[in-house]
Amino acid sequence: MRPLSQNTSSPPRLETVYLATPTGSPAAIALLLQPAVILTGAQATETALKQIPAPRILHIATHGFFLEDVATRAIQTSVNGDGIATHPLLRSGLALAGFNPRESGSDDGVLTALEAGGLNLQGTQLVVLSACETGVGDVVTGEGVYGLRRAFTLAGTESQVTSLWQVDDLATKDLMVDYYQRLLNREGRSEALRQVQLAWIQSREEWQHPYYWAAFVFSGQWQPLDPF
Fold this sequence. Notes:
Elements lengths: L15 E5 L6 H4 L5 E5 L5 H5 L6 E5 L1 E4 L25 E4 L14 E3 H4 L9 E4 L7 E4 L3 E4 H7 L4 E5 L5 H16 L4 H15 L6 H4 L2 E5 L8
Parallel strand pairs: 1-2, 1-3, 3-7, 7-10
Antiparallel strand pairs: 4-5, 5-6, 8-9, 10-11
């Protein structure tokens, strides 16, 4: 594991950053993608995420949220202070370390989609948001879906894998391991996910039901990743 560089003038190109708020071992996924920066538990802060210098792969395994009814539900964010989140990109986001006490490094632990859109991820080839409901957002007539997927596109990422409903942690870990193994074998980013899902239907009896694999959707540049 390598620390993040403190040289902000010309940060090095990172291959992989794995960020997860659960404290469980990320070895099954992160060790496939060495060299990698691994930030888990209390290290997985909003401030740390904002300081990451555009890795090739950014994998975030933390809780996502989407607020549908702004008339009755509000979230205090670092963007609007204490009001109801009326902007569609303020109503979805990621809960990072320090979310409950609103202390996450120098931030509040709530990375809204609006804030995610301001990250500098130019050159990042793939963002995987493997938590629950990270692909959900507001549908705006003439504009499409406002949410994390749009936000990370605005931030400069080439492609994203997100989820549409609450996912099973164990199944998700296995699915992501299979997905990254295919990416390392130079399969296309979209086709690799499709082939994993087809393989699970055919040969993974315990994970055959669509609940375990169909939540994950791909968008963006479909071609293989650049060679590691």
